[in-house]
Amino acid sequence: LGISNTVMGIMFYTSMFWLAIGNFCHLLFYGAISSVLFSLYLAFVLIFKIKTICLICISLYIVNILLLVAT
């Protein structure tokens, strides 16, 4: 797509913030579900394909799980 992960992350978390402010709970929940599913995929790639551990990546996976729990 030509868009860096940083920009995509900023866009995602900004949109989640505005969904929370706007009280769009159902969209916030679907966004949280999609972020956790994508985090599971990325964790699989990180551990089994790349065979490494990235503390920043794992911390973002935890943030996404907490986002889902909070919704």
Key features of this structure:
single chain, 71 residues, mainly alpha, 3 helices
Explain what this protein looks like in three dimensions.
The longest helix has 25 residues, at 25-49. This protein has helices at residues 5-21, 25-49, 55-70. With 71 residues, it is mostly helical. It contains 3 helices and no strands. The chain is globular, with a radius of gyration of 13 Å.
What's the SSE blueprint?
Blueprint: H1 5-21, H2 25-49, H3 55-70
Helix pairs in contact: 2-3
Count of DSSP H/I helices: 3
| Helicity range | over 70%
- Terminus-to-terminus distance: 29 Å
Query: What would you call the structural class?
Result: mainly alpha
| Percentage beta strand | under 5%
The secondary-structure element order is: HHH
Question: How many strand segments?
Answer: 0
C-alpha Rg (nearest Å):
13 Å
Summarize the structure.
This protein is mainly alpha-helical. It has helices at 5-21, 25-49, 55-70.
